[in-house]
Amino acid sequence: MNLFNLKYFQLLIVYSLASCLPYFGYSQMQLVKFDSIEVSSNGEQLLNPWAGGFNSPQFSEIDLNNDGIKDLFTFERDWYGMSKCFLNKGGYMETYYVHSPEYEHLFPSMQNWALLADYNCDGKADIFTSATAGIAVYRNDSQETLSFTKVSSLLKAETPEGLTNIFVSPPDLPAITDIDMDGDLDILSFGILGNTVFFYKNMSMEKYGTCEALEFELATECWGYFSESSQDNSITLFDSCENKKYKLNSSSRHAGSALLAIDLNNDMLKDILIGDISYSNTTMLNNGGSIDEAYMTYSDTAFPSYDVKIDLKVFPATYHIDINNDNKKDLIVSPNNPFTSENFNNIWHYNNISTSGANVFEFKGTSFLQEGMIDVGEGAKAGFIDINNDGLMDILTGNFGYYNGTGNYESGLLLMINTGTPTIPKYNIINTDYNQLSALNLSGIYPCFGDMDNDGDMDMISGDEQGKIHLFTNNALPGENANFILTDPNYMNIDVGESSIPQVYDIDNDGKLDLLVGEKSGTLNYFKNTGSAEQAFFSSFPTNNLFGGIDVMAECCGGYSSPYFTQDTAGNDVLYVSSEDGYLYKYGDIDGNLNGKFELEDSLFVNALRATVSGGDINNDGKDEIIIGEFTGGISILKNGSPSWLAISNLSKAKNDILIFPNPASNKIKVMSPNFRITTISVHNIMGQLVKEISLKDRPYETEINISDIKSGIYMVSVRTKKLIQQKKLFVN
Asked: What is the value of pTM for the model shown?
């Protein structure tokens, strides 16, 4: 054995011993999904109550667990798009999908859109997703578990102007399928300035005789010889496209379309379904040409006109998937716009009832998967409260609102009564508009609860999208169900700007409930109660508008901070803050430090758009469960538990894993953070002693550290960014 191998062998022994030592450094949030809690509605148990809801999901097939059965992958369109996974547990002619969050962290971080298709003919669905003005691709390299490798950051094609990216506008959905029936995947997409569909032909079979390559050429800028109007969604057939060569200063620009290439009549030619950004219908174009040259000959603007036509308020997108296991692909329709379309009961599905090999669709419903979920439309904010005074914690969930089809949203409260036991909660949905608060026409109801008048019952404080605060007094008599009456709209004239998310808590330990309010900018506003326990008083200006020095503003978008104060088992104050990008942050060093900067102790990725947070002990274990509201209208619950494959603490690593290399190292290491700027790097030995710490004022994404002064051994490197803290073992030889 040479000297290097001997030293490395010794390091492995030390590593084995070190793994048995108590873990040091920053503590991890020991939180796991608590999705075993039963929820019923109208006497029926919901199948996937805690799946999180949907606003604008995209659908694809993939075998998640390597059992040979096609499961379901959904991707929620957003800047921070979220992946959700559902195992297919149905039998023949049966639709039965079970939410399986244990697979979600295995997918890469993606934006805008994601469609799965097998490009290399290995039987595994690969990922095609949005990149800057184009398409990125991840190859499915799964063996025992799901695994993806990025093989292209930006797909390109040979064009008359040379090698250029395959353009896909961020609002669009391309069609990715074998258009010319030669065995490899081609791409259809609207051009950057035109209203015609570009056909990018995959040359893999022609060049190599296999489908494994991703080498494209622009075959035509006018696939199917049709064009779409720049003023509306009308289609011109038999268009020669000679005048569709738009210049860069052209005023005619394609706004947004979702494409699905599908052989509807079993003639081996791809027809096309088109949904548009400002319209509720789907247009079908029939391909009457040939495999070598598509030619659209007639249209159906009310597809399927032989059944219930597709009619989603804005921008319907279609997906061709076998959802009932009869070996015939069915049709799913959902909105492709997350902000101006239906946000509940908005996933239509049609079964394929053809007996001839064609596609004939029969309408089945408007809430595919959603019928088994808690879904309050858009912008869920939940809280625990004992509504009926039976000693069990119920759930009230507010929202930004249900889209009502006129451009407006109806905000209200969903009541779920706990019908379980003190140790085993079980919920029943009782009322979808508790106390008929939707009649108030508030721009969001984001509730929290506390006894604001010291009369022994819980009142409600609510935020809204306009940044205001509203007081609802509980006027119920002792023993009666809580009855919240709006007694003070625009409470104390507080206005934090946009998206006020409040919590009431005795922050300064003076026996009076104070007010802490999150907002769109990502900071927290502390309002000290200068009144009494019986009659609270708050200045309209915050006591501290950068409380704890906390700012969860994302580097691209908003912050949407949501606070939850509680205490740990030692009685110390702990502050959780959730954010737009789906992270939950835990802060300490609070007691006696209200004017200082709190310590970021941990962060977890909770896979929720614009997450909100609250908590309470619902299983009588002496520890708070955490309830997460999602912008997609659903809620989920986290409980204390040891980290495992279901541990949320493991999910953050998949999205923003810190890289340290080389490892082992002897002189220098490079530290890289893929998404967040590095502020501090510290190195501890196996006894937990700090041996090196570096503060980086310029906050780089990567840096190099000299470790030549560190003795051989195993160390823990802690990398702190604005968003999270991650730790990696380092071998020094």
From this structure: 0.86
